[in-house]
Amino acid sequence: MGGQMDIAFTVFKVSELTESDDSQKLEEGLIRVINRGYDKPRFKYNLIKTPRIKVGLVRDLKLTDTRESYLGVVYVKTHEGVENGHDASSLTSQFMALGQFDLAHIKPTGTFFELSETLLKEYETGKTCILGTIGIKPYKSVASSYELTAFTSFYPRLGEVLINQIESLAKKLGAKNIFASVITDHFLVDYYAKHDYIVETRVLCKVDPQTGFVISDDLEDSIEASKDFELALLRKTLV
């Protein structure tokens, strides 16, 4: 398919998802997408053994306040089916083969209802492709702050667009800071540094030798890892 294709970018409160009549089916689809995005570094570095979402979005993303947490989904409708079951790299290749996407003019549009109707009807058939996700949740340790979460991108340069858009939303919500927690062994500190994030703290996450689970108050429960690792907390001041 040649030419440019229009992208839809819908941002919604997580409570809209959890309170939806179709919440289970919608959540299952989003979990597959988010896990696929996080699986790329998981399989590349063989450090984290468990998927990003193991039980559910609220629990594993630690979305304790669903009415103040937001999730953005970028998607495009196609006339050609896409095999959504592929891994992240294969999906990116498929999406690039569809044509060019107009990343320069991505703005939040549409409603959760429109998004849910589209995903329920067309995602399983491959007629709707999710190109990326990003979310924010309140960062309780610092007033007027949010933390990035559920950040995935399956198309070149989409990630920086998503960061810019979600930072704009955070500012509209009155945030003065935005935080990101990353595993340093995944080489993400430099990526965020390019977007003006600076390292606030570094925490050693140890693995219980008996169970293989990570012992950390900074992460959700039931994470298995092959070895101890460092978690970096980064901050960006929003101006």
Core attributes:
single chain, alpha+beta, eight-stranded mixed sheet, 10 strands, N-acetyltransferase domain-containing protein
Summarize the entry for a quick read.
The chain is an alpha+beta fold and 239 residues long. It has seven helices and ten strands. Helix content is 31%, strand content 28%.
Helix content: 25-40%
| Termini Cα gap | 40 Å
Number of helices: 7
Number of DSSP-assigned strands: 10
Q: What integer is the average pLDDT?
A: 90
- Major sheet characteristics: 8 strands, mixed
Order of helices and strands: EEHHHEHEHEEHEHEEE
Strand adjacency order, main sheet: 2-3-5-6-7-10-8-9
The percentage of residues in β strands lies in: 25-35%
What is the name of the CATH topology? Aminopeptidase
CATH architecture verdict: 3-Layer(aba) Sandwich
Describe this protein's structure:
31% of the residues lie in helices and 28% in strands. With 239 residues, the chain is α+β, with helices and mostly antiparallel strands. The protein has a single domain, classed as Aminopeptidase, CATH 3.40.630. The strands form 2 sheets. An 8-stranded mixed sheet has the order 2-3-5-6-7-10-8-9, sandwiched between helices. Strands 1-4 form a two-stranded parallel ribbon. It starts with a strand and ends with a strand. The mean pLDDT is 90. This is N-acetyltransferase domain-containing protein.
